Amino acid sequence: MKKFLALLAMASSFLAVSCNKNNDEDDDDQKQEEAQGLGIKIDGNFDDWAALKPGVVASAKNDANSPWEAVKEIRCCADKDFVYYYIKYGKSDLDDLLSETAEELPIRLCIDTNGDFSTGYTSYFLDAYDFIVEGGLASNGSFTAYDGNFYQRVDDKWNLLLAEGSNMVLGAGSGNEYEILLARELFNNAVSSDQKIGDVFYTGIRFYTDGGGTWAELSNMPNASVEEGDGNGWGHLLKVTTSK
To answer: What is the pLDDT of residues 14-63, one digit of tens each?
Structure first.
């Protein structure tokens, strides 16, 4: 636990100084501290994603024939301590969205921890998922730190496991890109032993807009062509293998 708290404190320090590249950069030296595991720092600088070895990252790009276009790509990878997400919006789409200062860019991280698709929520992806983390990426016209409520699907309802402020997730963005860290230990401590994040797990992201005060669907990743399957553009969840 002490090691985990130290890692989380490190991640928090990266986030505190750099959740938006438009903020003051006086504390850039703090970002140079060596990262653990895959070496991804939650600081709004994405060079560490480009430096990852081939095969480490699961990714999906927007299908040109999907019903959506605002989100261009997502990626996910994991080490023994954390799960990491990368999001890339279309620049002009993001600029239009953030011109509405009330826009919070809500997202839902959708997670199946063990590949048992016989349980969980069955809408918006071709695979069922048991957990979501729900929160916003923006505030007052720019990216902000990510926080979220953690839910599990039980008896056709989303049951709250951890409220926002738990530090289970952190996030930072710059330009039209955003990255998120999810702490595996906090996730696993909140779920039953058979639902902990396995060495192989599955995930996707639901994207929304709420600038008008009501959530509306913005994108769904991974997605597929509306010419395939039942024509709704749903895709399979990303399969993520933990790096050791």
So the answer is: 444 344 444 444 433 333 333 468 999 999 999 999 999 989 999 999 99
Query: Which is it for the CA torsion 230, 201, 94, 133, positive or negative?
Result: positive
> CA torsion sign, 104 to 105 to 111 to 117?
positive
Distance set, CA 13 to CA 16, 109, 130, 196 (Å):
5, 23, 31, 27
Domain boundaries, the chain: 2-28+40-241
Helix/strand/coil for 134:
strand
Question: Which of 76-85, 117-126, 223-232 has the lowest average pLDDT?
Answer: 223-232
Q: By percentage, how much of the chain surpasses pLDDT 70?
A: 85
- What lies within 8 Å, CB to CB, of 103 at 6+ separation is 97, 138, 141, 209, 210, 211
DSSP labels, 29-60:
GGGGSPPPTT---SSS--HHHHTSPTTS-EEE
Exposed/middle/buried for residue 66 (C-beta within 10 Å: 0-12, 13-18, 19+): buried
Name the pTM for this structure: 0.87
Q: Above 60 in pLDDT, residue 137? A: yes
One-letter identity of residue 148: G
For residues 120 and 128, give the distance between their C-alpha atoms in angstroms, rounded to a whole number.
Answer: 5
Instruction: Tell me the CA distances in angstroms from 169 to 180, 207, 236, one per residue in order.
Output: 7, 17, 23
Torsion angle of C-alpha atoms 113, 114, 116, 121, degrees rounded to 10: 0
pLDDT digits 0-9 by tens, 219-230:
999 999 998 877
